[in-house]
Amino acid sequence: MSDAAAAVATPAPGPAPKLDELMLAMDVVDTLRHRETIVERELGEETRDEELKERLRTLYKSQGLEVTDRILEQGIAALKESRFAYEPPKPGLGRTLALMWVKRGSVGKAVAGVLLALGIGGGWWGWQQGAAERAAEAARIEISQTLPKTLASAADVARREARAANAKARVEALVADGEAALARKDVAATNKAITALDQLRAQIVSEYALRIVARQGERTGVFRVPDINTGARNYYIIVEAVAPSGEVLSLPILNEENSKLETVRIWGVRVPQATYDAVGRDKQDDGIVQRNRLGEKRRGDLDPTYLMAVLGGAITKW
Fold first, then answer.
1. Cβ atoms < 10 Å from Cβ of 306
2. Which of 21, 23, 228, 245 could form a disulfide with 17 if both were Cys (CB 3.0 to 4.6 A apart)?
3. Tens digit of pLDDT for each residue in 98-120?
């Protein structure tokens, strides 16, 4: 077919409807949609379009509106063709992307929240993993390097200070405990042995005199009647530890009556009755104990050397 023939066959488009006519046509469609009984009964029968136009004309006249046949026909035709009707797009990638773009604000916040949660969770997990690895490495270094050096240092210092046989034996026993704990990788037991060595060293290097207490208002000696033998008596001389500087020391003393280790400034040393009576006679002369040293603790020794006869054992209360 020639271009000229095609031009003759295709009708020229008519003038665009005015805005008020278009609005009226849309109103007709809207009226028909909301009056489903009319549409269901009339719209399906093309031969009755005239009757439908009359009903619509009457309806608009009752509202004070004059609507031309052309507008009514356009409305009926538009309804049949589904013009002015919104049909949602079918589900698909394009529709999904379009909806995400329209809701990009809320979607962006949700995605950011998810990413933030994943980031925090990943960061927390990584931190936990890192912390566990750091703790494991610190424990390895402590048991393989730090504690062996600390134990060896504490042992060397204690060995240098120990002079008495019992002091030396006590040092070696604690060193053996520490080395056994290291061998089984027992950190707590190793630290306990190191602490004990430090305390033992402090005890070994200490120097003091066991001075008999003879101050006014204070007891110089006491005796106890044992519960299991009421016919016997246990005698004690009250003493205090005085350093070369004159300072009165507080020392850990095991109370033989309750088996508790207590740190005290004065305590009673158990002695034979002869020692107890001798100290008593010394004090009775003038109220002063002339021989007021019960014993001496020299540096390098573990225990005091007693200048009077003692039985060992002590009490901390009387």
1. 16
2. 21
3. 666 666 666 667 766 666 666 66
